[in-house]
Amino acid sequence: MDDKPTSRPQRFLIHDLLPSGRMDSTPERPQWQCLASSIDLQELMGLFGNFHDSCVREVHVVTGHFVEEDLTMRVDWRTTIHMLIQRQFRNPCAIELRFEEVVGLRMVPPQPDCVTIIFHAAFFVRDGVYYWAEDGNWTPESTDDGTTWVAARRVYWRHASEWIGPRLRYRTQG
């Protein structure tokens, strides 16, 4: 049997993955769907209930920078973010978002004794940049420092209902 992966996101290098060639050892995953317009975003928002009663389970960030064995550094401005979001409704109960060519990220961890359930997320495109935020009232001009948000030039999504529960999926090492 061939140990080479059959498919994987183009931005990942072989050393970023598990020995199987995947970030997670689950069977073949659904195909990525490109969000190429405001209509695509609205359809996903409808399918996922505007992210109501959901939470950000995991975030995985990969930059284009790395150091080679000979200690030379490779530099690439492209950054990719994978985000696993789970919710308390079925069909689907989890989705994965992939943001490419990231131009901004703010990750705010949950505070002690604070519930960080998403009631309504913001997801829109402006001037060729796609924005996702856990607060439906968020805009790029917002001064609220307590909101997690991502801004990228390209966004994809796929069903991830088999990734419901506490198990970590993006962990690449034990």
Give the SSE map.
Blueprint: E1 33-34, H1 38-47, E2 54-62, E3 66-67, E4 73-74, E5 80-87, E6 94-106, E7 122-126, E8 129-133, E9 149-159
Antiparallel strand pairs: 1-9, 2-5, 3-4, 5-6, 6-9, 7-8, 8-9
Give an overview in words:
This protein has about 170 residues and is mainly β. It has one domain (about 35-165). It has 1 helix and 9 strands, in the order E-H-E-E-E-E-E-E-E-E. The protein has one helix at about 40-45, and strands at about 35, 55-60, 65, 75, 80-85, 95-105, 120-125, 130-135, 150-160. The strands form 2 sheets. Strands 1, 2, 5, 6, 7, 8 and 9 form a 7-stranded antiparallel β-sheet that branches. A two-stranded antiparallel ribbon has the order 3-4. Strand 7 and strand 8 (about 130-135) form a beta hairpin. The longest helix is centred in the N-terminal third of the chain and has 10 residues, at about 40-45. The model is unreliable at about 1-20 (pLDDT under 50).
Could you list some keywords that capture this structure?
single chain; 174 residues; mainly beta; seven-stranded antiparallel sheet; two-stranded antiparallel sheet; 9 strands; 33% strand; disordered N terminus
- Enumerate the spans where pLDDT stays under 50 for 5 or more consecutive residues: 1-22
The shape is: globular
Number of strands: 9
Write the element-wise H/E pattern from the N-terminal end onward. Answer: EHEEEEEEEE
Name the average pLDDT: 86
Instruction: Give Rg in angstroms.
Output: 17 Å
Structure annotation, total helices: 1
**Helix/strand structural class:** mainly beta
